[in-house]
Amino acid sequence: MLNIIKALDPRPWIALAVAAAVLFCVVKYKDAIHQVDKLTAQIEKDKAEATATARENEKLMSRSLAAIATTHQKEMQDEKDKRDKFMDDVRTGAVRLSIPVKACSARTGTNTAAGFSNSDQARAQLTPEAGAALAAIAADGDDAIRQLNACIDSYQAIRAITNHVQTK
Description:
Order of helices and strands: HHEEEEH
Structural class: mainly alpha
Distance between the termini: 78 Å
Radius of gyration: 44 Å
Helix content: over 70%
Largest sheet: 2 strands, antiparallel
Strand order of the largest sheet: 1-4
Mean pLDDT: 87
């Protein structure tokens, strides 16, 4: 009967259940740590790839912007050289500028006052200083347009690179 009482004693069964529960928790904990390590490694890999891609795109953008800036500077210098030559020609009188004007003409006849004619041939020659000043105003406007076009080209280049990255 003593063996039956010992067999009915719940302490060994409780100890076995506790040991099984502890073993189960340890296995689950190790699995969870393994999953966290795998996810952490994947995150680090994705982060490294994203960083490399971002640096590659940054270099591509820098090269594109540098090419646009170089082209813009060359264009601006070429136009400045042309403008300087034109201004020198205007100042020296090699190029003369004129503007159309309405000509005053006296009408023949009885008691008619002098009036304006609509002749397209009447022109007034500008002084070299006035011609140079007007040409400088036009050149400033042309320069502003070239700068805006370079800005638009830069925007378009960056947009194309950015859109290419987003579609990957």
